[in-house]
UniProtKB/TrEMBL annotation:
List of residues binding substrate: 101, 218, 265-269, 372-376
Name of the protein described by the UniProt record: Glycine--tRNA ligase
Domain Aminoacyl-transfer RNA synthetases class-II family profile: residue ranges: 177-418
Record text on subunit structure and interactions: Homodimer.
Residues binding ATP: 250-252, 260-265, 332-333, 376-379
Organism superkingdom: Bacteria
Organism: Galbibacter pacificus
Amino acid sequence: MANQDDQFKKVISHAKEYGYIFPSSEIYDGLSAVYDYAQNGVELKKNIREYWWKAMVQMHDNIVGIDASIFMHPTTWKASGHVDAFNDPLIDNKDSKKRYRADVLVEDHVAKIEAKINKEIAKAQKRFGDAFDKEQFVNTNPRVVKYNEQAQAILKRLGQSLEKEDLADVKALIEELEIVDPETGSKNWTDVKQFNLMFGTKLGASADSAMDLYLRPETAQGIFVNFLNVQKTGRLKIPFGIAQTGKAFRNEIVARQFIFRMREFEQMEMQFFIKPGTQIEWYDYWKETRLKWHLSLGMGEDNYRFHDHEKLAHYADAASDIEFKFPFGFKELEGIHSRTDFDLSQHEQFSNKKLQYFDPEENKSYVPYVLETSIGLDRMFLAVFSNSLQEEELENGSTRTVLKLPAVLAPTKVAILPLVKKDGLPEVAKKIFEDLKWDFNVAYDEKDAVGRRYRRQDAAGTPFCVTVDHDTLEDNTVTIRHRDTMEQKRVKIEELQEIVKKEVDVRYWLMKTK
């Protein structure tokens, strides 16, 4: 656990030191669980968003995008169930006066059991070497089987209690498992209470006539209320999807783990409208399609897993999370949900407007079912960033810190470095810089010895460094260095554009999903 904590601390400090993420309004001592994306962070975030958008909208001829506003008519949130049911179960520790999400305390307890399982697997792997059969071991080792049964039983009970809103049993479960306050070790808990997560605000010039509004807690409702507008103006036939990226706001009481859980965050969602009865095949299709998108970034298949929900929202008939192995363990990165016709039916009822699709093949109208894919952009940023940050021991015994970002997402693609600040080398380097910046984000750096500049670009995540030296003046060639392998190659200046393009091109990366 300590090792995980150390790794996570490194991620947070590296993000600040290299211009990726700053605490918000830091000169005023910051604001809890609110962060600003810095000069490199804003580029990485934009590149992730574009990588998602191209895969989701540009590559699908039956998916279009919208950008709905953050403010919506307040009845929207009544219809969606957020006013009455958008709650977290909270529990206070009487001794530390700290507040926690009750379900997260239980899930963290289960994560400790899972850590024990992984320890047993690692020990057995070491003992048996190549002959080790992981699946057989997990299914037959008495200790692992027992741990697994414990974990499943706890999660099942938690899911059932939350579904029935039996908060007394959630507290009973915490007491039975002897879960302690992570800060003080105290077991002195209050009862579990529900807390609504929406931020309220007012619309209007005077206090008397102002309308109560909410900052949207999700982007999905902006899609649902525009379903008919988009379908008719786009002349779209079912099945079709509407995608959207944008800010959402939740008054998270237990916001923590850096940008993993924030009060202001960005979502990338797609609602796919389908014929009732076809939801299972589309659910399987989107599970597979979305996992392929993640795997295309080359961050390691072992770092992903599906977690099917025990506890389904009352409107869903299937739900699964793609979980990623963050420095603090496997946690939800993306949700794939079969939402039936709940959303459109609710908005029909509350607005008294028909939200139906006329199916010319069936010659009848119906309320479509919806299949949702929803990913947190900030969580995706954290997944990419934390997975990419590595310490490497080199052959000469020294170490280097390298941020091995997928090249398609890297903020800066190439750094142009004149070997020395004289002899006409900066002029040639600047000409290359001016030429390449039409196609890529390029950096220019002439300060310090070239080895130190390489290290700086490695730590910032730049995939390529191009060094201009005295030979360049003779033969128009430069040295191109690859961040991941540190391999250096002599190439012609006019070949640079093509070499870099091949490695950073969206097509090259997304083709892996085909």
